[in-house]
Amino acid sequence: MGVMIRLSSLMVLLLILLGQEVSSTLYKVGDMDSWGIPTDSKVYSKWPKSHSFKIGDSLLFLYPPSEDSLIQVTASNYKSCNTKDPILYMNDGNSLFNLTQNGTFYFTSGHSGNCQKYQKLLVSVGTYSAEADALSPSSSADADAPSYQNVFGSIPLSQKSSSSYISAFSIVVASLACVVFVGALM
């Protein structure tokens, strides 16, 4: 009888958790542009300012894997475009970075020379970082610098991700399966 009361309590708790809205957002970095050398030096410094990132959100970097890669770097390596000793290296062309904590994250292309062509991104989770302004390209960027066209097409994605809803559903289903299993043992 005590096991059934505990199982009933577990079911009530699961229903309460399922009733709470669990949401996260999947951001395609640069929105309609894929991860590449920008035609405007401020693309990747402007883009994060138009979003409010939170723990649980994800960043999707799309690029041709034969031509580029993505690395996460330290603040000083971001500023100096030093691609040696990255924190994280991804090269699959569909690189997904999950934001699991508050703070500032620094990304750049792993391809030699692309960081100097402003293919780098700074994302602040939780609060906007004044450091983002300090590390973004200055307004006096060289107007004579060559412009590089991004030839990899865009893939439209919806802003909202349903993965967190699926995860909550999966937890409930798994929990119910455990309840049935424990009940069968009795």
UniProtKB/TrEMBL annotation:
Protein name: Phytocyanin domain-containing protein
Cited Gene3D superfamilies: Cupredoxins - blue copper proteins (2.60.40.420)
Main localisation: membrane
Protein family per UniProt: Belongs to the early nodulin-like (ENODL) family.
Top-level taxon of origin: Eukaryota
GO molecular function, one term: electron transfer activity
Domain Phytocyanin, chain residue ranges per copy: 25-127
Matches recorded under Pfam families: Cu_bind_like
Segments traversing the membrane: 165-185
Protein's cellular compartments: Cell membrane
GO (cellular component) term, any one: plasma membrane
Keyword tags: Cell membrane, Disulfide bond, Glycoprotein, GPI-anchor, Lipoprotein, Membrane, Signal, Transmembrane, Transmembrane helix
